[in-house]
Automatic annotation (TrEMBL):
This is Histidine--tRNA ligase. It comes from Shinella pollutisoli. Its EC number is 6.1.1.21. GO terms for molecular function: histidine-tRNA ligase activity. Homodimer. It is found in: Cytoplasm. Pfam families: HGTP_anticodon, tRNA-synt_His.
Length: 504
């Protein structure tokens, strides 16, 4: 065997499809955004809870097909006791399990919020990922629609806390019971039609994405997308499709109330849903939330089957440019609704619940479009240069670094090869470091350090044309006693901050 054949194969670095690596800017933006969301939830009296990424597969419920390996829609594996576990699909089903398991310990109504990653084993595409973050709030144990109305108000307050102005968002509200009445009106009532109803729900949930014509295809024979993939339709007749599209096409609820009542007449559940919508409308209006913030809108469906009553969606109204260069309304960044049956699956008794979920990544994209994120720039660290490599000098450089850190200043001691001082300054420049701290043998003998203003130095290097002028300037580098290092660094960082504010 030749040497070439013996050489081991180099492992190829590959990111799995549908997943992303997050950089420092994105991580900080998410932290900034979730802190603002958390403040609103806490103000409403909600408390945090955290559930694991994995759940037993049967706890996730109706997302799964009847298959030997339940791995469609979710990522699953078999435990050593041969029980199937799956990565959570959302944050709501795990909460239902958590509440059921601790039902005798928790105080009802149980008001909680959670932020975390969820996983979908679906075909990835532009803007569609297999791992993404959600931020949920839920009330378990409150049956009245006032709990649903509160969720809508909290969503509106969250949008404004994030800097989204009125007119740039609306919380749209519908009721699944009204939709059930419409299903009865088109002959899809009863357990035998459960799958057909779910197909219809998923079809009309695509109204914003595909428009009425695309939804008509999904309600009828089916739709082929641009890639050639075919989605089987619900197989409804034209008369049935017309009734569904009338319902979801209502724009002015008050003006269409009589027609809607006529459509669901004969359905007790449909009538109950209309009454609940009217109650929510009254409650939010009484609290000062007009239709510019919270609006009754029958086109809101929410595709998940577990919703049992009011459903709501936070929609952004401003236009952005999509991948094709087209101006489009940004659309939904979160939603939720009442899911009275989800906890009950574990309990054998009714347990009312309502909640909503914010899509963190999508909302972050929206906030970046509005210029509402990343305004508080994180300053790069001050770099303490390494001029001498003996252990005493290294200890001194480390002490300078720790003194800066203990004073709340980001700082790092240069960790590369210190032979070439110019490379240290190049490194500091690439890092965007505001200052460099320098002490060679001469400075050490005098008990002083040099602090170099890298921002000002860069500016001066563009303006000063000869060495004599550079030596005369020297304003970008100052000498201070070691004891005054922290104070001088603070002073120079403050001056840089003033310059940024003036030039902003």
């Amino acid at each position: 065997m030749s040497e070439k054949q013996k050489k081991p194969q180099k492992l190829k670095a590959r990111l799995p499809r549908g997943f992303v690596d997050r950089d420092a800017a994105d991580i900080r933006a998410v932290a900034e955004m979730t802190a603002k969301i958390r403040e609103v939830y806490e103000r409403y009296g909600f408390d945090p809870v955290e559930t694991p990424l994995f759940e037993y597969t049967d706890a996730l419920g109706k997302f799964l097909p009847d298959a030997d390996r339940p791995n469609e829609g979710v990522f699953s594996l078999q435990d050593d006791d041969e029980q199937w576990m799956s990565l959570r699909y959302d944050l709501t089903a795990p909460l239902a399990r958590h509440v059921a398991e601790r039902f005798n310990e928790i105080q009802l109504p149980y008001r909680t919020y959670r932020a975390g990653y969820v996983f979908r084993n679906e075909k990835p595409g532009p803007g569609r990922f297999r791992q993404f973050m959600q931020f949920d709030a839920d009330t378990v144990g409150a049956a009245g629609v006032q709990a649903d109305a509160e969720m809508c108000m909290m969503m509106a307050d969250t949008m404004e806390a994030l800097g989204i102005a009125r007119g740039d968002y609306v919380i749209r509200v519908n009721n699944r019971k009204v939709l059930d009445g419409v299903m009865e009106a088109i002959g899809l009532a009863g357990e035998a039609n459960a799958n057909a109803r779910l197909t219809v729900l998923r079809a009309i949930d695509k109204l914003d994405k595909f428009g009425p014509d695309g939804v008509r295809l999904l309600l009828g024979p089916g739709r082929k997308d641009e890639s050639g993939d075919f989605t089987k339709g619900a197989g409804l007749f034209e008369e049935q499709i017309d009734k569904v599209l009338f319902f979801v096409g209502i724009k002015d609820y008050a003006a269409s109330a009589a027609d809607l009542a006529a459509l669901v007449s004969g359905s007790a559940r449909g009538g109950e849903g209309v009454e609940e919508l009217n109650q929510i409308g009254h409650l939010v209006a009484s609290a000062g939330y007009g239709p510019d913030r919270i609006k009754i809108d029958p086109s809101v469906v929410r595709g998940l089957e577990y919703y049992t009553g009011p459903v709501f969606e936070a929609e952004l109204q401003f236009a952005v440019t999509n991948e094709k260069g087209e101006k489009v309304v940004f659309g939904s960044v979160g939603g939720g609704g009442r899911y009275d049956g989800l906890v009950s699956r574990f309990m054998g008794q009714p347990v009312p619940a309502t909640g909503f979920s914010i899509g963190v990544s999508r909302l972050m994209t929206a906030l970046k479009n509005l210029g509402k994120l990343g305004q508080d720039e994180v300053l790069a660290p001050v770099v303490v240069c390494v001029m001498d490599r003996d252990i005493d000098s290294l200890g001194r450089y480390q002490r300078f670094t720790q003194e800066l850190r203990n004073a709340g200043i980001r700082a790092e001691m240069y960790q590369g090869n210190p032979k070439n001082f110019g490379n240290q300054l190049k490194y500091a420049d690439r890092r965007g470091a505001p200052l460099a701290v320098i002490q060679g043998g001469n400075e050490r003998a005098e008990g002083i350090v040099q602090v170099k203003d890298l921002i000002e130095g860069k500016r001066l290097s563009g303006e000063i044309e000869d060495n004599a002028a550079w030596r005369e300037a020297r304003v970008a580098q100052v000498s201070v006693p070691e004891a005054d290092l922290v104070a001088k660094v603070r002073e120079m960082l403050a001056a840089q901050a003033e310059d940024r504010a003036r030039n902003a």
